[in-house]
Amino acid sequence: MGRTGIVKDNRYLNHAADSYHPESPERLQAVYKMLEEPDMQDKFVEIQPRVATDEELELIHGRRYIQLVASTANRDYTMLDPDTYANRESYETAKLAAGGTLSAVDKVLNGELNNAFAFIRPPGHHAESNRAMGFCLFNNVAIAAGYSTKSYSLKKVLIIDWDLHHGNGTQHSFYERPDVLYFSAHQFPYYPGTGYVTEVGSGAGKGFTVNVPLQAGPGDAEYMQVFEEVLEPIALEFKPEIIFVSAGFDIYYQDPLGGMQVTPAGFANLAKVVLDFAKETCKGKVVFVLEGGYHLNGLRDSIKEVLKAMRGDILSPGRDDKIREKVDRQLIDPVIRKVKEAQKPFWKNI
Ligand SMILES: [Zn+2]
Predict the structure, then answer these.
(1) Is 39 among the domain residues?
(2) Ligand 1 mean position to 250 CA, how many Å?
(3) Ligand 1 centroid from CA 290, angstroms
(4) Quick check: 276 pLDDT over 80?
(5) What is the DSSP letter of 12?
(6) What CATH number is associated with residue 30?
(7) Has this prediction a pTM greater than 0.85?
(8) What local confidence, expressed as pLDDT, does residue 1 receive?
(9) Angle between helical axes of 90-109 and 63-71 (0-180°, round to 10)
(10) In whole angstroms, what separates CA 87 from the centre of its chain?
(11) Is residue 349 situated within a structural domain?
């Protein structure tokens, strides 16, 4: 017991909009409160987050862009794009979000912890090398993946992005690199517009981007099908040394931004698929990083189930076979077929 780490820090609440915005401090407050519930209290190792250095941010972001974000600390309020705000605290908070993810990576890679979940904000997967986008300032997961290859000389890093939205920034960061495999299942066509099946990487990175664009509607069974039929065989063949999950909870069935139908039990099962193949390829080294998710109770309940799965809790045994029985094949088979066709040239087992 006690080998699952969590990153939590009240400074993540300092990044806040000046009027209603779905990406709010209340999201983390709901999660932090859940962590105090009697059945969750003292079950996890708290990881002290650090602030990412400029050098670490520059693994993904341009120097001029970092300076632009830094300059927002001098103004009460800045809109960096139509959806993306910064207050005086946002720059520091965003560096702490990226750094907190790196703190989790250190603990998992040095063997102190089996796995970890970074409860941070602002989120990251839309952030491009040179611009803020979709509530994201610095790309936390991309920086952590770049850090794993640079500072730990890892040769194979897998990023799994189950957020409702396609992680354009993460995909672009590694599009031409064979050492970081990016997998995303996302609502499509939808914001941000990227993530076609045919986007498979380029140059040396060809075959190391896997996109599963989904129309609205898939729930637990359909996501499970995608994970077991597409992601799992590719992951077992790729054999990552560490796995990151861009864990967005906006595929929750009541999320105000999305059209997906995933329940807390469904999230637990997706996590179990990932944790199972992680056990085979990298001794279970998985770092979950919070991205979206805008239904506060959904966020709370879904994360609670994922955390139980991460501990291998007796309350949360293996994959639930009953979930598979409810699959809507008409909804999911056509896209799975297309993804397999696009990825067949690169993966024997698909
Ligand atoms: Zn999202």
Answers:
(1) yes
(2) 6
(3) 10
(4) yes
(5) G
(6) 3.40.800.20
(7) yes
(8) 43
(9) 130
(10) 24
(11) no
